[in-house]
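Most newcomers find our protein records easier to grasp once they have seen one. Nothing more is needed to start thinking about how sequence determines fold. Here is such a record, shown just as it appears in the course material:
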Amino acid sequence: MTTEPNILMIMADQLAAQALAVYGNSTSITPNLDRLADKGTVFENCYSNYPLCVPSRASMLSGRLTPAIGVWDNGSELTSQQPTMAHHMRNAGYHTVLTGKMHFIGPDQMHGFDERRTTDVYPAEIEWVADWTAGASFVPSATAMNGVVEAGSAIRTLQEDYDEEVGYNAEQAIFDLARRDDGCPWFQIASFTSPHTPFVCAVDYWDRAGEPDLPRVGKIPFEDLDYFSKALFFAHGRHRHRVTEDALRHARRAYYGMIIFIDDLVGRLVSALEKTGQDKNTVIVFTSDHGEMLGERGMWFKQSFFDWSARVPLIMAGPGIPAGRQDEVVSLVDLLPTFAAIGSRTVNLPCDGVSLLPLLEGGTGRDVAISDYSGIGPCVPARMVRQGQWKLIYTHGQPPLLFDMVEDPDERTNLADDPAQGQVLARLLDICLDGWDPDDIAMRVLESQSQRLFVKNTPGAKSDWAFRARTNDGERYVRIGSGGVDGTKAAARLPRADVVAPHFPPIEAEKIAAILNGNEPLPDYLRRA
């Protein structure tokens, strides 16, 4: 038995905290996560530091906010010179394993891990680069909403194929690690791709999920949306599809079905720890890279700072972890220093997170989370600050949003213009702008985009950076030129996508159609600030 405990970190993809029974959802069925939560600590207010896959994961692994590491969108590379939690854990004497999705962009597909047991579900090339010069009404993919309007059940999906493979290899790694006799503790990340869109799950999980709940906040009229939300309306292609109530129910039911699937896989990994006797000396951490709006406010996917998109589950259980709930605000950058502390080390390199162990020992923390966004949609730097009960959403050049998350957890009332909250607004703006110059950030983003778009669009042979765990891994799962994320996943499900009729009724508003057809100018609120 090692002195320091092993660490098993289990990640879901695009899983909102509010969608879990642990966080009060009466629809969600997650007995394994419930048991884990009962014997460990549930963090009520954990946030992603960027509500999008690649930047969130790069931030989490490095313990840095994305402007510090120059990771701006899903086409950004985490440089090899940036230490990650894998490097820190190896320096603490741990054997490190990555199983599943991490969405590394670029030739370094290990980033400090001793071993990687599966390929990645997504391509490693510079492909999904945001382009602010295309404007706020740019729609990067014609299939963006297909994952919602084609929601339902199938015999088998690509995501289930992938996650079963991740589950098997992560479980096997637990068995293999139990056989090691070198006395070294281990650190493994098991990272699944569910419940990411498209919202399709296997029939048995569809049946187990049953009828879903409906959004707490219904669709908000387009003219009443804030600038950021209006920009995402176009960037997500919502003007190209009408989401009927049936489609809404189907999407939410499939989402909950995929959550049940993930919960089953969590149960298998916990069982493997118990069978091998490693449960007594292993800290288990469950989280996600970001959330999913799931129809709340009429919005879908991520990239928003509203809580369904930005807030993530965080559950920790194992030796030294007390049972209970923790209300202080934390974020994913806090995981690296926490893991280092579990390994009896401190992080002496630049780090934007703080260890959560003092909170677990009855002390206090920072009670602050910062999240950035520089992707498609707004085309300006944006940042969220959550401190205590207050949340600030800052979109450069636009009026700020301020919410009291205790009195108004659904974020219905913007208090930024309330004189009574002037001091609160000023304090959060100070935190937001401390060391963060949005004009400088804008120039850095535009320079990075221009360089990466040039590389992406250069004719000739393309880079092939896919990690290959087995033969033909370079062609499996979602790859460049294969129809986009939802297109690839839809084509790989059984029955095939061409037997599922997509729902393409008229777009939602004649005015929006006129804008897209060039018959009306782009409104001022969608012009670049």
